[in-house]
Amino acid sequence: MMRPDRGIDVSDLSPLEQTSLLTQYARALDSQWAQPILGDPLAADIVSKIDYDFGGLGVPTSVVCQAALRAKMLDERVRAFTSENPDAVVVDLGAGLDSGPFRVRPPPAVDWYSVDLPGVIALRKRLLPISRRAHSVTASVADQSWPETIPSHRPAMVIADGLFAFLSEPVITGVFRRLTAHFRTGELAFNDYGHIGWFTRVAVKLAPQKMFASVGAQWGYPGFEDAHVPETWNPQLKLVEEASLAHAPEIDLFPNWLRLATKVSGMFETSARKARILRYRF
Q1: H or E segment at 192?
Q2: Are 50 and 8 in contact (CB under 8 A)?
Q3: pTM of structure
Q4: SS (H, E, C) 251-278
Q5: How does residue 215 score in pLDDT terms, banded at 50, 70 and 90?
Q6: CB proximity list for 261: less than 8 A, separation 6 or greater
Q7: Keywords for this entry (predicted)?
């Protein structure tokens, strides 16, 4: 995937906002594979319109596979929820440039709210198709006011892909409590890394790829060793699913070496928790 001669300048994005480019590039690479995992046709189109050295990120195949698979798993949970609740709202926290509303294609009465920082939302408005059911919310999830423009009386499917690793524990706790304070009923689904220890943190910082340096510099929360921890932060949240990416059928689409390594990791509880989707009901 070549860098365009001319494209949208993103040099004014903050380091945290720039992490959205990494995830989008991973989804774009997946979309160009002969057998994609997510297969998002908009991803590569969006990347092609941005003036940024994506190739310089050094995104490895393993990250492409994981980013594509966790997005697909979240899509499936959104489809299931909106199928049962055709009047729902979907809230994507830290949405980045994700084109979820156009992949999932929920029932026509569903409204989809993408929440992110100002620079990212400005990019979304320039790059993503217009839909009367897709809305942008310019806000930090650390702010108490971000839910104010989102209907509270409809069932809510709240998702977060890659967000919580960049937030502190007090901010995440605030987000979890704010959800149930604003929405009457719904679900929360997000990806989690089990628990990122000091060794992994050091390894990420020392890795030669720019991608890992960018992520490591922004890392906030190490992940949940116990998936029931969010229930202690907000008793209104009830864990209903803990799905390891290592157990997903789509790993058969991984390259041979990565497929084998992933299947082996899925045989052990600790390593299987290193990449998973957690889902809670409230």
Answers
A1: strand 186-192
A2: yes
A3: 0.90
A4: HHHCCHHHHHHHHHHCCCHHHHCCCEEE
A5: low
A6: none
A7: Methyltransferase, Transferase
